[in-house]
Amino acid sequence: MLILTAKRFASMILIMAVVSFILFAIFEADKLAVAGKVLGPYSSTEQRELWLEQNGYNEPFLLRYVTWATNAARGDFGQSLQLKVPVSDILWERLGNTGILALCMFALMIPLSLTLGVLAGMREGTFTDRGITVASVFTTSIPEFASATFLTAILVFWLGWLPGTSAMSDGFDWTQLILPVLVLLLYDFGYVARMTRASMAEVMTSQYIRTAILKGLPYKHVILKHALRNALIAPFTVIVLQLNWLLSGVIVVEVFFAYKGFGKTLLDAALFGDIFVIEACTLVAVFVAVFSQFISDIGYTLLNPRIRFS
Predict the structure, then answer these.
(1) Which of 129, 152, 174, 251 shows a CA-CA span of 20 to 30 A to 213?
(2) If DSSP codes are grouped into helix, strand and coil, which group holds residue 143?
(3) Model confidence over 42-67: pLDDT tens digits?
(4) For the whole model, what pTM was predicted?
C-alpha cells in the first residue's frame, strides 16, 4: 500500500513538473510578448528591453523556469496586469468562493445520486429503475446555460423567490447560492446516479450475491454488507474526478450569475490577456486534476482488497 501511494505521489509530482514547464514555455518563451502584455501595445522596444532587464527575463530560459516554478510553489505568481494586485490575493479568495459552491453541491449531490442509483440498480427493469434513469438522462442532457435560464425565469422573474445574481455585493448571502448550486446539481447528479445504477445492477447479478440470498440471509443484510461496498467502487472514482470538472466547468454558471469564483476569474483573465493570472489558474486546475486522480487511485485501492493485496 505504501509503495503504491509513493508511486502515485511521484507520478503526480512528475506530471505537475512537465505541465508547468510546458505552460511556462507557452506563455513566457517569447520575452518581448510578455513585456508587451505588461507595458501595453504602445510601449517602445527600449521600454520593453528595460523591463526585461529589470525583471530578470534576460537570464537563461531554464534558470528563469526554475525561479518561476519555485515562486509558484510558494504561492507567488506575480502581479495581475488587470487589477494591479498580487495574483495570490485574487486567486485564493476566488478559489475559496468556488470551494463554497462545490461544498454545497457535493453535500446535496452525493447522497441524492447514490441513493437513487442504488435504488435503480436494486430494482433493475422496474418502473422505479426506468423513472430514475429517464430523469437522470434528461437532467444531464440539458446544458448549464439552458437550465440556468429556465430556473431564473421561473424562480426569479415569475415567482420572485430568489435573487437573479450571486455577486455577494452586500456580504455573504445563502439565498444567492441556491440557483448556482441547483444548476450544477441538476447537471451533475444524473451522471453519478447512472454510474451508481450500472455498478449496483452488475453487483446484484453476481454469483456471491445470489449465494447469499439463497443461504437465507436477510435482504437488507445482503445489500448493506455485501453488495453496497463493491457497487460504490466505480461511483467513488467518478465523484472524486468531478472535482476537476467542477473547477473548470463552473465558468458558465459563475458568469451567468456574476459569482466571483475561480471560473469567472479565469475567463476575465483570458479576455483581458492577464497572462500571470492565466498561468496561476492553469497550475491550480492541473493540480486539482492530478490530486483528484491521486485520491481516486488511493480510495479505489482501499475499497478493492484485490488491488491492495496484489
Answers:
(1) 129
(2) coil
(3) 777 788 888 888 877 778 888 888 88
(4) 0.81
